[in-house]
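Deadline looming. Please check this record:
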Amino acid sequence: MIDDIAKCPARGGITIFKGLAAAAFLCALPAPAFAMHISEGILPLSWALLWYAAALPFVIWGLRDLRRRSEEAPWFKPLVGLVGAAVFLISCMPIPVPSAGTCSHPCGTGIAAILIGPGLTTVVASIALTLQALFLAHGGITTLGANIVSMGVAGAWVGWGVFTAARRLGLPWIAAAFLAGMLSDWATYATTSLELAAALHGDGPFTTMFSLILLAFVPTQLPLGILEGFLCAGVLKFIRSRRPELLRTVPAGGAA
């Protein structure tokens, strides 16, 4: 597979966008509209700008990592595109949480971080979130920075960190993948709760608002996180059995 991909490196530069655009078309079919991620207009402008500023360094670092790794292995950029399309589709499964001003949904950033690293996961999550905001009314432009931080930064780095730590501690790769998928999902929603509470607590205590929002997610996100753990482990098992060469960059011997 790698050899086949390597034969067409000139097309690798647009693979990410083509894959995500195709995923966007599929998800644009008529369906009930729910506001996923943090909805447009929920955050005050000052907080929206703050989260944009927080997300920007991670996106820039991820783009530099993409350029470096693509120069080393021409087949790598198409792989990033495929992972990005998967993140887009996985995160297009909304379960409304009206009391929190957002939705619960699986994220896919745990398995993405295992396969391509946390920096590049931030990049593909940013592209997926932008397409969803522009074409599917999921999330929003003003809240894009906050959504990148919660899903593309917190979810990616927690998933990658948990998998790496678990493997170094000697856990089987399938258990490490399960923990990475589950905890990356929960980290995304803990961060979303923090973002909403920080901006909306007003004169009331931040901790009270944070606890209320976090609890609003529990009925949907607790089982979703567990399901995403199984999904992450299942995807890694499939790739390990069919295309183990794609796992050469997985941390701490994930392909062993």
